[in-house]
Specification:
Helix content is 51%, strand content 8%. It is of the alpha/beta class. Helix 3 packs parallel to helix 11, helix 8 packs antiparallel against helix 9 and helix 8 packs parallel to helix 13. It starts with a helix and ends in a 5-residue tail after the last helix.
């Protein structure tokens, strides 16, 4: 996988449209048509509108981070030296990030199939979207953008304990693919993987994306979906109708979720050491067959994700 991760797109120099707005970028569409997942960040294509979107997003998140974010995120956002007024260059982000944990942000053209994404984490690479939402549509975006990925996820990657938990989670994908390879019959293998992928997706959602952590005096946010959402970060901590429970693995892997509204159920970890132990437990349960028949429901496992595990290149 490492050789694949070093490849990048070769986009026609004749493409000069200055815009990297989500769902409206000729550069991204051309990369997708060419089948190029790993790309370079064409920084010169960001428009003034793109940078204005970043500025607005960053400015309105600052007071939310100060109030609700966990201390590891706050330390990380400081360590990355992000410019609040302009979209960051990933090479500059990596210059600050890599010496801390070995992680790097790796530009991608869009959706990354599940096994490929998790294998990137195993190799300390974080697939990073380079487009950004419109400056007049800041509140909701069903797919990630560079603000979600760089301002939401990457500061957490500066913390060694969190980074190790991510790598450990990526290793679980290898375990799943290896176990699936030993299952006879394509239908049985596909059913097994569908359940395991769903369990892993739920775990990622309720921890890495929407996790809460105990702080010295109050709950704090460490999930990147919350850290990049102006409305939801406060809702997660303050709203009386949100259910907040200490995480139990059996709950998390059997609980469906929907992405198009504020989350009504959130789970709490004690620390990143606790998170790492949960990933260990997840893999142990996988080996014991406890992920082979999790509760049906969201998220649906698409064919591309399933194929990524069925055809995984294992070390």
């Amino acid at each position: 996988m490492e050789s694949d991760m070093q490849s990048s797109a070769s986009i026609s120099p004749g493409l000069t449209t200055n815009d990297l707005t989500t769902n409206a970028s000729p550069f991204i569409e051309q990369a997708k048509r060419a089948g190029q997942l790993y790309i370079e960040q064409p920084y010169e294509l960001y428009s003034a509108e793109n940078h204005e979107a970043w500025r607005k997003l960053y400015a309105r998140m600052l007071p939310c981070w100060d109030r609700y974010a966990n201390e590891h995120f706050l330390k990380g956002i400081h360590s990355l030296c992000l410019n609040p007024d302009r979209i960051p260059r990933l090479e500059e982000v990596n210059r600050f990030l890599s010496p801390l944990t070995g992680f790097q942000a790796k530009a991608v053209s869009g959706y990354v199939p599940s096994f490929v994404f998790l294998d990137c984490l195993r190799n300390r690479r974080f697939p990073t979207t380079i487009t950004i939402r419109r400056s007049d549509k800041l509140d909701y975006l069903p797919e990630p953008d560079i603000f979600h990925d760089v301002a939401g996820h990457v500061p957490m990657h500066t913390d060694k304990n969190f980074a190790e938990a991510l790598v450990r989670f990526g290793e679980c994908a290898n375990t799943a693919a290896e176990m699936a390879a030993g299952i006879r019959g394509p239908d049985t293998r596909a059913r097994y993987l569908t359940s395991v992928i769903r369990a892993m997706a739920r775990f990622f959602w309720f921890t890495i994306e929407f996790g809460l952590m105990r702080g010295p005096d109050s709950l704090k946010v460490y999930g990147s979906g919350l850290l990049s959402s102006h409305g939801e970060i406060a809702h997660a901590i303050e709203a009386p109708d949100v259910q907040r429970y200490p995480i139990q693995l059996q709950w998390a892997i059997n609980q469906g979720f929907e992405i198009n509204h504020y989350q009504p159920l959130l789970f709490i970890v004690d620390s990143f050491d606790h998170l790492f132990s949960l990933v260990d437990q997840l893999e142990a349960w996988m080996k014991d067959g406890k992920l082979s028949n999790v509760a049906p429901g969201e998220p649906e496992v698409n064919e591309e994700d399933l194929k990524s595990f069925l055809h995984a290149e294992l070390d």
